[in-house]
Design a protein that fits this description.
Distance between the termini: 49 Å
Helix content: 55-70%
Number of strands: 3
Radius of gyration: 23 Å
Strand order of the largest sheet: 1-3-2
Number of domains: 1
Order of helices and strands: HHEHHEEH
CATH architecture: Orthogonal Bundle
Shape: elongated
Strand content: 5-15%
Low-confidence stretches: none
Length: 120
């Protein structure tokens, strides 16, 4: 099992718990954009939207480059890698558990189900 930075995982999952921030990340997955362009579909003030961007930036999920007075935000995929790896490891565990359960149930079915049936 990989060792994870729990503080980073906590921060990433906390940040991703907000639907607005998830939507921002989804939009940035299409390419870099300015805050103004990112904020267009949301019904909130630009200062309120900028707070979301600051949270994403502090968590290391996004970065920006400045061109003149504009900031172009883009995803920083390395930060989310730890969370993705953690989720993938859990997925492997549960798939293994479900596979074992399936084998058990198929074996029970082949053996006539309940072994207590011999009392009838």
């Amino acid at each position: 099992m990989v060792n994870y930075n729990n503080n980073n995982l906590d921060q990433v999952f906390s940040v991703l718990s907000d639907p607005t921030r998830r939507a921002i990340i989804q939009e940035l997955s299409k390419g870099e954009k300015t805050v103004k362009k990112l904020a267009e579909p949301f019904d909130m003030s630009l200062p309120a939207f900028s707070k979301h961007m600051k949270v994403l930036e502090t968590a290391g999920l996004v970065s920006f480059r400045k061109v003149g007075r504009y900031k172009f935000y883009y995803l920083h995929p390395n930060t989310i890698f730890g969370a993705t790896k953690w989720l993938n490891d859990l997925q492997s565990f549960w798939e293994g558990q479900l596979s074992s359960l399936e084998k058990y149930l198929l074996n029970e079915e082949e053996n006539g189900g309940n072994k207590n049936d011999h009392n009838e």
